[in-house]
């Protein structure tokens, strides 16, 4: 049987602890027992572990599960990909963050694009913590050994100009000549024996504004196509990551 995997909030060399919702779930729903085995992610590494201490804080109290870490287990690294995700309708955006986590991205940068709806842009800052929780849950579910970093929302106009050593690709349905596959092939060849680091920018529901296309162009982003059909933003994100996974992994 595969062991359950938990992502620890705190750890040291020999132990790791779960607190809050994770601890409560483990104690009250799964009825954790002392000596029970689990895989615990601590500091980006996975450890075969056993439950060493259970504190059920009672109603309103602080639940805690402490594990003894026994041995490191080999784990898969994240894909070196950052999704630069224009902020779009929150329910679709949450879905996209969940799926991007399952597909193994390293980080997500929510960006406010020209056509991001104003009320979404205003509410985005307060949403980041919820997006982080979604990423934690999806990491556990997909048995990742780490949790993608979900950055605080930033303006696309600032982010696109900031220096980066990654290969920067902007998905654009207007692009006709370069497919994402071709752009990736180029990046993989240029990186030689190394894994190329990638950034993939996805536009909002209304697409990129003309001045954003110019901004990308002026700052070294390569435009790439996912084919002749117009995809919803969240579909484009997942489709793009599947293409990346098929070429990098
Ligand atoms: N401007 C469009 C919709 C944009 S789709 C309209 O006519 O309403 C939202 C985002 O998904 C785009 O900005 C782009 O990043 C991505 N996207 C959708 N279809 C794509 C395709 N065929 N190739 C590349 N990117 C695509």
At the fold tier of CATH, the topology name of the largest domain is: Alpha/beta knot
The DSSP helix count reads 7
Helix content: 25-40%
The distinct bound ligands, ions and cofactors come out as: S-adenosyl-L-homocysteine
Give the overall silhouette.
elongated
CATH superfamily of the largest domain: SPOUT methyltransferase, trefoil knot domain
**Which second-level CATH architecture of the largest domain applies?**
3-Layer(aba) Sandwich
* Radius of gyration, taken over Cα atoms and rounded to an integer in Å: 20 Å
Number of strands: 13
The first-level CATH class of the largest domain is given as: Alpha Beta
Provide the β-strand percentage band: 25-35%
Give the helix/strand class: alpha/beta
Q: How would you spell out the order of helices and strands?
A: EEEHEEEEHEHEEHEHEHEH
Count of distinct structural domains? 2
Low-confidence stretches: none
Distance between the termini: 26 Å
């Amino acid at each position: 049987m595969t062991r359950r995997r938990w992502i620890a909030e705190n750890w040291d060399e020999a132990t790791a602890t779960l607190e809050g919702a994770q601890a409560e779930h483990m104690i009250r729903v799964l009825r954790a027992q002392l000596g029970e085995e689990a895989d615990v992610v601590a500091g980006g590494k996975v450890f075969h572990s056993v439950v060493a201490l259970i504190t059920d804080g009672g109603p309103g109290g602080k639940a805690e599960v402490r594990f003894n870490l026994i041995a490191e287990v080999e784990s898969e690294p994240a894909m070196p990909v950052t999704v630069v995700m224009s902020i779009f309708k929150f329910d679709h955006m949450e879905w996209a963050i969940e799926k991007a986590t399952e597909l193994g991205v390293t980080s997500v940068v929510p960006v406010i694009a020209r056509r991001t709806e104003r009320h979404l842009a205003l509410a985005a800052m307060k949403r980041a913590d919820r997006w982080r929780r979604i990423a934690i849950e999806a990491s556990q579910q997909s048995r990742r050994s780490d949790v993608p970093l979900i950055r605080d929302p930033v303006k696309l106009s600032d982010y696109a100009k900031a220096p980066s050593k990654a290969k920067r690709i902007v998905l654009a349905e207007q692009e006709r000549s370069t497919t994402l596959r071709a752009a990736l092939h180029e990046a993989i060849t240029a990186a030689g024996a190394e894994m190329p680091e990638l950034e993939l920018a996805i536009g909002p529901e209304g697409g990129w504004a003309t001045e954003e296309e110019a901004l990308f162009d002026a700052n070294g982003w390569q435009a790439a196509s996912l084919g002749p059909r117009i995809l919803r933003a969240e579909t484009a994100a997942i489709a793009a990551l599947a293409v990346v996974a098929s070429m990098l992994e």
